[in-house]
Write a structure and sequence with these properties.
The chain is an alpha+beta fold. 33% of the residues lie in helices and 24% in strands. The protein starts with a helix and ends with a helix.
């Protein structure tokens, strides 16, 4: 067989496989789809009622990864060199670039391309912000400027540096928070950063970061043992959701996720690096679980072109399965859940979407990075550097063309604050954002207009935007207007106002926030508690302890405990260890345990090991388990109950859990051996011990148990 015959057979088999994929997909979903041919034997499909076209070819770009749109509609594309370069070799020999694409005739196809910046290490994120391009180019966070307007950056500034790099699992972003901060994500590969203020931040865990646009006030927001957090979005209320890989080592068809990130949250997977964090109990829950799909790009759809059912939906670019998914977002308790469906799918095994972007007209752009990346990717074993990727656009068929989607004809620069505030309800997202930026730039002169918009706008998203604008201005009158928004009728606006109060550390909000933490909708309670911790007023501690009573929502529980840890006021927490509500006792105990210079003592925790409340009992076990010098409390507890003639069901479960947790302790093993070898003991007690032994996670069966079991 010659090479041409082999190639022909490959195309035939690939075409058959592609047809099977589309056929199986249609059979599974029952959904009608339309598709375009994108290569010999390959197709890309979209749901019926949508169209798709290629709008940037390999001649104008190479290996596109991430992108951002500016207020002129230009597309800045972060591109790979097409090489799989290891760690420190990337910044030593930077070969990546950012291209600037333009659509000069308004047909939606990018027909002009130039290199905006080159000699970058792998640029994994780009944001056009206030006339500059901000880029994550590990180990650096960089700002690029085109001061002469020729479409080429001639000025480069490293804002911050020190994030370690490991292939694509490194620094990503930045992402604009509605609070005016810039957010970044970084995988579990270590960092050593000197802040603008001269502090040194070091660690190994994966982290979510934020800083001012000049790099000042760098903060670690959340983190965990996950391998690679990638992109972030913020809901109108300011809640943060992100894509990430490895919330768990692959098992049961799961590996990757969407996460709802909250202040101080510690997230899966379990890994030794989580010892870096203050803990509030169990690791935080996963919002949406995926298989090994390597989710990357993420947006929340804000426009109207796709129809009302799409507003607020999330879209993710998923590298491994060759598709873009749609996620309908629903509130569930103090967090979210999603309903997921496939939106764009491809039969091409070398089609690898890495980013999805909403353009000004409401269409979706998505980037196919091509066939270059194989490092650390189990589903791409053979690099195909000749496949340089492309950019595609998805539109709603029959949707009317957007009139002036960028708002360039509105004269925004000269508009009054009152007129700008009206645009916060404009259906065009770019107009809303540009108007808000101009209101913030006006400062005190815009406060009345923003406060009026918060009071009168019919759209909750517009009222949230007004609240964040007031928080960014942060004058006395602006913060008074934020405090008024804490009583808004819409919970989203109350969440936004509580977030702003916390970010600016407004002590005059404490009384109202304390009431919200006790009695409001669960998401509002979560944010109110978070803000009380950030403000730092210890007078809030009694309210937080009271608010814990009856709470079973993990996100509210976390916010309350984390705030108590931050407030560092042990006296009322020590008193709460005997409170009537087990949830209050649990919150006080964990907060005390995690507090620097903790006054918590063994004798205060020991009685809680026998609690009838399972959650409190497990929390007490968790606290005792990381105090090596408290082993006596465990032995006393076990001896008392193992020697008792009879155990109640709740007591039996507490003893079993304790044995499982402390099975590796030599003294506990000896105690179990004594009970096993007690020939006069009741058979039921022996069965109980055998059941506990079966559950123990220890790898080596203790020799002391062998005789008793025999």
């Amino acid at each position: 067989m010659n090479s041409r015959q082999a190639s022909g057979l490959a195309v035939i088999f690939t075409g058959i496989a592609g047809a099977l994929v589309l056929g199986l997909f249609a059979a599974r979903t029952g959904e009608k789809r339309s598709w375009i041919e994108v290569g010999e034997g390959y197709s890309i499909s979209v749901p019926a009622g949508f169209t798709i076209e290629r709008v940037a070819e390999p001649e104008g770009i190479q290996y596109p990864m991430m992108a951002t749109v500016d207020e002129r509609g230009r597309l800045f594309v972060a591109e790979s060199s097409g090489k799989n370069v290891k760690g420190r070799d990337m910044p030593a020999n930077p070969e990546c670039r950012i291209s600037l694409l333009e659509d000069t005739n308004g047909d939606g196809v990018y027909d002009r391309s130039r290199v905006f910046a080159d000699r970058l290490s792998l640029p994994m994120g780009a944001l056009w912000h206030r006339g500059s391009l901000y880029v994550a180019s590990p180990p650096d966070f960089v700002r690029l400027d085109d001061r002469d307007g020729d479409g080429v950056s001639e000025h480069r500034e490293v804002i911050l540096t020190g994030w370690n790099i490991l292939n694509t699992a490194s620094l990503h972003g930045p992402f604009p928070g509605p609070d005016g901060w810039l957010y970044l994500t970084h995988g579990r590969h270590g960092y050593r950063i000197e802040t603008k203020e001269g502090a040194l931040l070091e660690g190994l865990a994966g982290r979510i970061w934020r800083a001012r646009e000049n790099g000042a006030e760098l903060e670690r927001v959340a983190g965990g043992g996950f391998d690679n957090p990638v992109e972030l979005i913020f809901t109108p209320a300011g809640e943060m959701i992100g894509t990430m890989t490895y919330f768990i080592d692959p098992q049961n068809g799961q590996r990757d996720a969407l996460m709802h990130y909250v202040e101080g949250g510690v997230y899966p997977k379990p890994h030794p690096v989580i010892a870096e964090f203050k803990r509030t109990g169990d690791l935080m829950p996963v919002m949406t679980k995926f298989a090994r799909i390597a989710p990357s790009g993420l947006i929340q759809y804000r426009g109207t072109a796709f129809g009302p059912g799409y507003r607020g939906n999330l879209f993710t670019a998923q590298f491994n399965p060759h598709w873009i998914q749609r996620h309908v977002l629903h509130r569930e308790g103090a967090s979210f859940r999603t309903e997921d469906s496939d939106f764009v799918i491809s039969t091409d095994p070398d089609f690898h979407p890495t980013d999805v972007i909403e353009d000004a007209d409401g269409s979706l752009l998505f980037l196919d990075t091509g066939g270059w990346y194989v490092d650390a990717c189990p589903l791409s074993k053979i690099s195909k550097a000749e496949r340089k990727g492309a950019i595609y656009r998805v539109r709603k068929a029959g949707a009317p063309a957007a009139a002036d989607p960028l708002g360039n004809g509105l004269g925004l620069d000269a508009a009054s604050p009152a007129d700008l505030a009206k645009h916060l309800e404009d259906p065009r997202p770019f107009v809303r954002d540009r108007s808000l930026e101009r209101l913030v730039a006006r400062g005190e002169a815009a406060v009345a207009a923003l406060a009026g918009a918060r009071e009168r706008a019919t759209d909750a998203e517009a009222r949230c935007a007004a609240v964040f604008g007031l928080g960014r201005i942060a004058t006395v009158t602006a913060l008074a207007a934020v405090r008024a928004a804490l009583g808004d009728a819409d919970p989203q606006v109350r969440i936004a106002a509580a977030r702003v109060a916390g970010m600016v550390r407004d002590r005059e909000s404490v009384t109202r926030l304390a009431e919200m933490a006790r009695r409001d909708d669960l998401p509002v309670r979560r944010q109110a508690a978070t803000s009380l911790g950030r403000i730092g007023d210890p007078s809030a501690v009694p309210a937080l302890l009271e608010a814990a009573a009856g709470v079973r929502d993990r996100f509210v529980e976390h916010a309350l405990i984390y705030a108590l840890i931050e407030l560092k006021t042990p006296a009322p927490m020590l008193a709460a260890l005997t409170a009537a509500a087990p949830e209050t006792r649990k919150a006080a105990m964990i907060a005390l345990d995690q507090m620097d210079g903790s006054p918590l003592r063994r004798e205060q925790v020991s009685p809680l090991l026998a609690s009838e409340d399972p959650a409190l009992r497990r929390a007490a076990l968790w606290v005792v388990s990381h105090h090596a010098d408290w082993a006596g409390a465990v032995l006393d507890f076990l001896q008392t109950h193992l020697n008792a003639p009879r155990m109640a069901e709740a007591e039996a479960e507490a003893v079993r859990e304790t044995l499982v947790v402390f099975a590796g302790d030599a003294q506990v093993q000896a105690l179990v051996a004594t009970s096993l070898n007690d020939a006069a003991g009741e058979a039921s007690r022996h069965v109980f011990l055998l059941d506990a032994i079966e559950r123990c996670p220890i790898k080596q069966f203790p020799a002391a148990w062998t005789g008793g079991v025999a």
